[in-house]
Amino acid sequence: MIKVEDLHRHFGGFRAVDGASLTIETGSITGLIGPNGAGKSTLFNVIAGVLPPTSGRVIMDGQDITGLPPHQLFHKGLLRTFQLAHEFASMTVRENLMMVPGQQTGETIWNTWFQRGRIEREEAELRRKADEVLDFLTISHLTHEKAGNLSGGQKKLLELGRTMMVDAKIVFLDEVGAGVNRTLLGTIADAILRLNRERGYTFCVIEHDMDFIGKLCDPVIVMAEGKVLAKGSAADIMQNEEVIEAYLGTGLKNKDMVGA
């Protein structure tokens, strides 16, 4: 689905992404790990159109999407979440979901005067879909809660729910477990697995927690110093001497491996 070819993103003399090449297969849950400063989030930002590349290409379903802005990629089904959730704090959880689909009839003043019936039908359908998403994510009890009052984990679930309000093909999740307690992290993991298996979502996940990565991801791609260092199953990656050395040196052999 996604093919990254010799991608570079430089900030002055710093090469945040330095010739990375990788493939994300359709229907996979691909993990992306590496030490701090490896270039993972920058790679996500370039793929998702948040940053233009210095050079290289990004291909999606055979089409060159290099440098396309996020709103165009959104309509192609490529979505990206961030380490910090971006909710509309004063709106309810349901309203946050209903805001996601673009080109709604009620977005223009003219239509609010002359297309009231159409707007009401659209809103009823969006409300129905939002309630279906909340039920899928097991957070229906939060329907009328202000999004700003949610916990960190609940906000991450809400972000995942937003991807379900449109026809997402591939979702890039950046540290979905950051600041999330173990119970909610399990709920998030279950939702990702269900979206993958039942609805055909493709995911690429940056995450610290190797237990989370091991449960969800195959394959796992390792980045270091802006380059792709290794690719394989989570079990193989955790035994890879190059990968161990790239994280914290040989001391990591005697402790649990963590991502970045």
Automatic annotation (TrEMBL):
* InterPro entries reported for this sequence: AAA+_ATPase, ABC_AA/LPS_Transport, ABC_transporter-like_ATP-bd, ABC_transporter-like_CS, BCA_ABC_TP_C, P-loop_NTPase
Any keyword Flavoprotein? no
Question: In the UniProt record, which is one GO cellular component term?
Answer: plasma membrane
Report domain ABC transporter positions: 2-250
GO molecular function terms attached to this record = ATP binding; ATP hydrolysis activity
User: The organism sits in which domain of life?
Assistant: Bacteria
Coiled-coil stretches noted in the UniProt entry, renumbered to this chain: none
Keywords carried by this UniProt record? ATP-binding, Nucleotide-binding, Transport
Please state what the protein is called.
Amino acid/amide ABC transporter ATP-binding protein 1, HAAT family
State the organism of origin. Paracoccus homiensis
